[in-house]
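hiii, so i know i said id send this last week but things got crazy w the move. better late than never?? heres the sequnce for the chain we talked about at the cafe, plus the structure i predicted for it. fair warning i was half asleep when i ran it
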Amino acid sequence: MNEFELIAELREDVGKGAIRRLRRDGKLPGIVYGTNKNVNMIMFNHNEIMHHLEQEAFYSRVLTLKIGKTKEKVVLKDLQRHPFKRSLLHIDLQRVDEEQALTMRIPLHFINNEKCIGVKQDGGVISHLMTEIEIVCLPKDLPEYLDVDMLEVGINEALHLTDIKLPEGVQIYSMLHGGDGAQPVVSVHIPKVSAADEAAEAAEAAEAAEGAEGADVTTESADASTKEETEPQDSES
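okay and structure toks below
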């Protein structure tokens, strides 16, 4: 299991001008808050954070934040990305209290997709209605992801929130707050024919019909010609 240590520096300059200078220098501004401590303005090496983000576990793991000689446990709570460049604008971290429950978004991993009954036996396709869910747990129970097993899902069937197997100590946030456990997470259904496919099929059918009609006309003309050639001509007296 990968451990992530984030090296940060405290920052004091505020304002748009200061933030722009930081970004030009390859720094990523951010904040860390929580556990009844002060909100600290911090900054990171932008490229180091980008490198960490390439690993899925970074988003749902308890991280170690190091500022000078001080280390504390944090989780990633928010990222602001540039609207069109491959870069970050800001990062928010939340301190972790081992005795307080966390609310985190966790990715779903769908397994046995190719062995799924509805796919293998009936030619169905899988539709993912959710790719992550929000959970509540203590930091020690925080899973990196949750598996959703597709093996026994038949055609026109779905798995719901209540079908997700949760590790001990983990609960689904929405269900703790009166949400519907029957909300579908993934389904298997017959492939839908797209409008483009329907149009192509209609065009092919029309072409086939025109071809058949043309063949009939040609046959009738040929029959008429044959009839004219074989009918006896009236002789002039």
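btw The chain has a mean pLDDT of 87. thought thatd interest u
miss u guys!!
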